[in-house]
Amino acid sequence: MPTVSLGTACWTLLMLNGLGLITTLGPRRDGVRFEANLEHHHHYVCVRPGLARDFESTELDALRIPDAVNGFGSVVATHVELRGICDRCTRGQAGESAPRNSRQWQGRERRKS
User: Side-chain half-sphere of 89: how many Cα atoms within 13 Å?
Assistant: First the structure.
């Protein structure tokens, strides 16, 4: 919608986040990334273009909160964010080998916003 200002869009996203209707994804880098998928899941983020893919993992869901975190405060949510170089970027670089343990992740792709 070309008539909506960037400020209005940002304010609306922050308000939706405050209401718990969306959440943020990963650490703040060049800006805030918002997440519309509120189902429990994890993320794979390519460090080059910032492409994010959702995935589910019962193994990661079963991770126990480390005792070292107990003194920080209460934990209200957890998710794992894996960072790497995606296969698309790896294929695009001639002569560079694929990262160890590289695999195709199933899920929705999003570009960083």
Answer: 13
* Number of domains within the chain: 1
pLDDT mean over 79-101: 72
What are the E-state strand segments in the chain?
23-24, 34-35, 42-46, 52-55, 81-84, 109-110
Based on the number of CB atoms within 10 Å of its own CB, is 46 exposed (0-12), middle (13-18) or buried (19 or more)? buried
pTM here?
A: 0.55
Tell me if 45 sits within 8 A of 107, measured CB to CB.
Answer: no
Collapsed DSSP state (helix, strand, coil) of residue 40: coil
Calculate the alpha carbon distances from 42 to 8, 19, 32, 56 in Å: 29, 21, 17, 6
How many Å separate Cα 108 from the centre of its chain?
A: 11
- Residue 56 covered by a domain: yes
Give a yes or no: residue 40 inside a domain: yes
Instruction: Return phi, psi of residue 54, to 5°.
Output: -80, 145
